[in-house]
Write a structure and sequence with these properties.
The protein is of the alpha+beta class. The protein folds into 2 domains: 6-58, GMP Synthetase, Chain A, domain 3 (2-Layer Sandwich), CATH 3.30.300.220; 68-125, Lyase 2-enoyl-coa Hydratase, Chain  A, domain 2 (Orthogonal Bundle). Helix content is 50%, strand content 13%. The chain has 5 helices and 3 strands; from the N terminus they run E-E-H-E-H-H-H-H. The protein has a 3-stranded mixed sheet, with helices on one face. Helix 1 links the parallel strand 2 (14-19) and strand 3 (51-55). Helix 3 runs antiparallel to helix 4 (96-110).
């Protein structure tokens, strides 16, 4: 393999760490884990680095890409988005068993709710969903 799975660039005290496996949507594999470990070792020995950014995607128009992502999230069930945010908030703070239990609890709470039923109906009817925001 000629392309590195993880690259590091340092400029102005900021390290830019990039994952480079777009054909697999930057899914982590052994080579990427090894690359991240190597990047961490390199950055530990760089006293000028005061911040590290991790990029999984670089876009020539980052503002447009961010707005596209925001629109995509805004088009999803508000109940599911809130559940995902709660689960993301737990990530790294609880062990796997607790995280999986929280995920099962969130999924159970979503099943059968009006917005979940609307998502299924919209998919079958090939139309955009019309979600209600209960907040």
């Amino acid at each position: 393999m000629t392309e590195q799975r993880v690259t590091v660039e340092i400029a102005g005290g900021v390290a830019d760490v990039r994952l480079n496996r777009p054909e697999k949507r930057n899914a982590l594999d052994g080579a990427m884990f090894a690359g991240l470990v190597a990047a961490g070792e390199r950055l530990k020995s760089e006293p000028a680095v005061r911040a590290v950014g991790l990029a999984t995607r670089v876009d020539p128009d980052p503002r447009r890409a961010a707005l596209d992502l925001a629109r995509s999230i805004a088009g999803r069930s508000p109940d599911a988005v809130r559940a995902a945010k709660r689960l993301l908030d737990l990530a790294g703070r609880v062990d796997l068993e607790t995280g999986f239990a929280a995920e099962q609890q969130e999924i159970g709470a979503l099943i059968g709710r009006p917005n979940q039923a609307e998502a299924v109906a919209a998919e079958f009817e090939k139309r955009p969903p019309r979600f209600a925001d209960p907040s």
